[in-house]
Amino acid sequence: MPRYPFMLEPDQLIWLCHAIDVTREAGARDGGQGCIVEVGVARGQTSTFLLTHMQLHGDRRPYYCIDTFSGFTAADRDHEVSQRAKPAAALNGFTVNDRAAVEQNLKRHGFDNAIVIEADAGAFGWSRIAPIDVLLLDVDLYRPTKAVLTASRPHWSSWAHVLVDDVKPDDIFDGAHQAYVEFCEEQRLPIRLVGGKAGVVAPPEQAVAKEGET
């Protein structure tokens, strides 16, 4: 039977394709080139989708896939349990991912601009890959979401587009919601929502597919 293989909603994928196109055009116009970053890769379904879009448009920018490939870190899980009253048993997913398998599958599809990095994104050195044109952040929990947004912010390009998944209150993974809202308030950025569970940051002059504001 047909099935939908992606963890992201269609509105999110549409927004990301638009973000990739807009930033590619901005880089070509202004003489700069950044990278695309996906944090929280799992098995790489979304990576394959977005890399296919880039390939079809002749987009050769580096696409970084960053994940622990062993699930949530102990510190991030402990914070959700002790500080956010989340059940520990619900935070044990994504432990069967394999970095080598993801890397091999992406290469098999001909995506030689894909770079797979096994790392805790909350402690990653973002200056290594700057500037960042598009950032897809899907790490679910409060601590890594807030850490990545805060640490990567100085390394965004001037036309950067950022999408945070699981921006939805009263959910098992609403740590991402809390982190996104706090970050926007601290940076004096508008809270902008896409679909039913994503928060975004993008230049205000850019038209974004199916976007709403709160």
* CATH secondary-structure class: Alpha Beta
Q: Main β-sheet: number of strands, strand sense, barrel status?
A: 8 strands, mixed
Shape: globular
Secondary structural class:
alpha/beta
Q: Segments where pLDDT lies below 50 for 5+ residues?
A: 207-211
H/E topology pattern: HEHEHHEEHEHEEE
Task: Using the CA coordinates, give the radius of gyration.
Answer: 16 Å
CATH fold topology: Rossmann fold
Spell out the CATH superfamily.
Vaccinia Virus protein VP39
> Got a strand count?
8
- Beta-strand content: 15-25%
- The number of helical runs is 6
Q: Termini, distance in Å?
A: 38 Å
Please indicate the count of domains: 1
Would you mind describing this structure in some detail?
- By secondary structure, the protein is α/β, with parallel strands linked by helices.
- The chain has one domain: Vaccinia Virus protein VP39 (Rossmann fold).
- It has six helices and eight strands.
- It has helices at 10-30, 45-56, 74-84, 99-108, 142-152, 175-187; strands spanning 35-39, 63-67, 114-118, 132-137, 156-165, 192-194, 198-201, 211-213.
- Helix 1 (10-30) packs across helix 2 and helix 5 (142-152) packs parallel to helix 6 (175-187).
- It is globular.
- Residues 207-211 have low confidence and may be disordered.
Task: Please provide a brief summary of the model.
The protein has 214 residues and is α/β, with parallel strands linked by helices. The protein has a single domain (10-207), classed as 3-Layer(aba) Sandwich (Rossmann fold), CATH 3.40.50.150.
